[in-house]
Structures are given as C-alpha cells and as structure tokens.
Amino acid sequence: MKILFTGGGTMGSVTPLIAVAEVLKARDPGCDLFWLGTRSGPEERVIRRYNIDFKGIFSGKLRRYFSMENVLDVFKIIIGFWQAVFILIKLRPQAIVSAGGFVAVPVVWASWFLGIPNIIHQQDVKVGLANNLCGLMAKKITVCFPVTAKYFKKNKTEIIGNPVRNNLRAMAALDKEALLERLNLKKDWPVVLVTGGGTGALALNQLVFDSLKELTKFCQVVHLTGENKADDDFSHENYIHYDFLVNIIPFIKIADLIVTRAGMGTLTEISYLKKPALVMPIPRSHQVANADYFYERGAVEILDQEKIDSDDLIKRIKELLDGKSKLKELSKKIHEMIKWGAEERLAEIILETARKI
C-alpha cells in the first residue's frame, strides 16, 4: 500500500500528519509513505528523520489581499500542479492526506484530477484558504473541533481531535526533574519556554529580547527563535536559545509556562502535556480564532501583539509564575480542549479509504 502526505512551509501542517504516519507504519510496516512538501520550508529535515520519501515542489500562497506576488504565485501553483500530476502517476498512491498549507493545494487538485481519493484534516478553529480550496474535492474531512464541522458537508465530516506523535505520548510519563538535569537546567528555578513555531516569530522574538534582562532575574528562559533570528548580544546563565529543534517536546515537558503563537501544532502539544500558556496570535490571521476559542474556555491567557510591550510581558509572566493556583487551573482546562486519539482514528480512515481502490 502507498500513502502520500502533503503539507509544509511551516511545521503546523506537518506535525499532525507525522503522528498519523507513525500509526500507519506500526499497523503495516510494509506500507510505503511519501511526502510532497515545499522546496525551502523547514519540514524536509524532520520528515526524512521518519524515513519518509520526501520531494519538494513549487507552491504559491494566494493572499486574501491585493499583491503583485499573487500573480507570480498563480504560475507557481500551476507548475506545482503538473509536478504533482507526474509524481502521482509515477507513484500511484492509494490515498492522499493533507492538513492544510498552500503546498497541499496543487497536490490535492492533482489527486482529484487523477481520481485518487484524498483526505483532509482541518485542525484550526477557522478554516484556512488552502482547505477551503480543497474541501470540495475531499473524499473525507476530519476536524479537531465541533465548532469547525459546520463549514464542511456533514456526510463526509468527522470530529476526531488532533493527532499527537509517539514522542509526545511517551514524554507525558517521564520524570520532569530527570529531564531538567539532562537539559542542564536548574531544578529550583521556573522555566519559561518561548516558541514562535518552527520558523520563528519576529515580533514575539523582539518582545522577548527586550524583556530578557528582567526575566532572567526570576526565571530560566528557553527560547526557540527560528533560524538566524537570535540576539547574540545577550548572554546569561538563565537564557538558552535555539535556532531550530527537531524535537521540542522535552522542553515543553519541563516548562512551567509557555509563551507561544497560537498555531494548532503547538497548542496541541502543550494541551496534551497540560502546560499553562500565554499565547500571542498573529494579528488578523487564523491564529486569532484559535486563541479566542481557548481563551473563552479559560484554557489560555492572551497577549495582544499590537498593544503589549516588554514591561507588560514581564508583569504577566511574573504574575502567572507566582500564582500557582492559576497555573494549575490553566493546566487542567487546556488538556480538556482537545479530543485525544485522533492519530488512530485518522489512520483507520486512511486505510479504509485506500482499501476501496
């Protein structure tokens, strides 16, 4: 059996599919897995670690506002479509699986053109343009949240939650103190993890850089900056930064508080490990709906990128670290936000679909 995944550009559309790929391999070691992603995104290095055959194709981003780049990107999508057509003809997979991301659009269209069934997973609260463009062509659609199901046809949509990887499930059982020692962090100082996702977040990074002098007086800061986005002028024993982490899960496990964007990949991981979070969604993006959905249910605290400054950030972090009852409440509620076991159910759907070919 051959299954082809598609997604990339950021890790948000990649992480849940890797979790499903792990289940497929466990159920059928002879199953051949392939991936079509972007030519320059962060996903290739991660996907290859799972022994999945990866190919990069052209892709474009169709913006919801006027931009001359839209013209160029239309041609990229057309090129990507024909690349996908020829690759699919050569590979002949039984099913295509995507979870959003603009690189998925030409691949899903190509699979529909060739009569190959495709399955779409919608993890964000608000449906992105990529999945909107692909939804009509999907054989089956799975969603993370009940509120999102209404945007797709009822007879082919199922609410399953969001998939989680093996290393995330394994990490839940590990001892935090042993991990702190392994990662060379102090056991008697709180740890704040800051992550803007696999490609980093400039606004969040700058806010943290401006706050480091004060933050390092009362907590240890582990900062995932994104490649070539670190501030090399600041050095302190309570500050560690990484350009990129193939496996961020150990750092999520040991964190007392997480400061992050509101992509569903990260929100799923911190929800599973019951981690309190301050989330700063990208303004006027799908992340705002994610952040609001969690906030309205008491599961996160929100930072407004357009209003917050370094003094506010320092104050919010210190208040939460000092307020143990609030951290405990956030920890409990965030874990209740998502239905767990989605990786198993989505793998079942893929196999059921593929076997009908």
TrEMBL record:
Matches recorded under InterPro entries: GlcNAc_MurG, Glyco_trans_28_C, GlycoTrans_28_N
Top-level EC class as recorded in UniProt: transferase
Single Gene Ontology MF annotation: UDP-N-acetyl-D-glucosamine:N-acetylmuramoyl-L-alanyl-D-glutamyl-meso-2,6-diaminopimelyl-D-alanyl-D-alanine-diphosphoundecaprenol 4-beta-N-acetylglucosaminlytransferase activity
Catalytic activity from the UniProt record: di-trans,octa-cis-undecaprenyl diphospho-N-acetyl-alpha-D-muramoyl-L-alanyl-D-glutamyl-meso-2,6-diaminopimeloyl-D-alanyl-D-alanine + UDP-N-acetyl-alpha-D-glucosamine = di-trans,octa-cis-undecaprenyl diphospho-[N-acetyl-alpha-D-glucosaminyl-(1->4)]-N-acetyl-alpha-D-muramoyl-L-alanyl-D-glutamyl-meso-2,6-diaminopimeloyl-D-alanyl-D-alanine + UDP + H(+)
Domain Glycosyl transferase family 28 C-terminal stretches: 191-334
E.C. designation(s): 2.4.1.227
Alphabetical UniProt keywords: Cell cycle, Cell division, Cell membrane, Cell shape, Cell wall biogenesis/degradation, Glycosyltransferase, Membrane, Peptidoglycan synthesis, Transferase
Domain (Glycosyltransferase family 28 N-terminal): residue spans on this chain: 3-141
Any single biological process term in GO: cell division
Keyword Cell division in annotation: yes
Domain of life: Bacteria
Membrane topology, as annotated: Peripheral membrane protein
Coiled-coil positions: none
SUPFAM superfamilies reported in the protein's UniProt record: UDP-Glycosyltransferase/glycogen phosphorylase (SSF53756)
Pathway participation: Cell wall biogenesis; peptidoglycan biosynthesis
Cellular component, GO annotation: plasma membrane
Annotated binding of UDP-N-acetyl-alpha-D-glucosamine, by residue: R165, Q287
Subcellular location: Cell membrane
Family membership: Belongs to the glycosyltransferase 28 family. MurG subfamily.
Function per UniProt: Cell wall formation. Catalyzes the transfer of a GlcNAc subunit on undecaprenyl-pyrophosphoryl-MurNAc-pentapeptide (lipid intermediate I) to form undecaprenyl-pyrophosphoryl-MurNAc-(pentapeptide)GlcNAc (lipid intermediate II).
Protein name: UDP-N-acetylglucosamine--N-acetylmuramyl-(pentapeptide) pyrophosphoryl-undecaprenol N-acetylglucosamine transferase
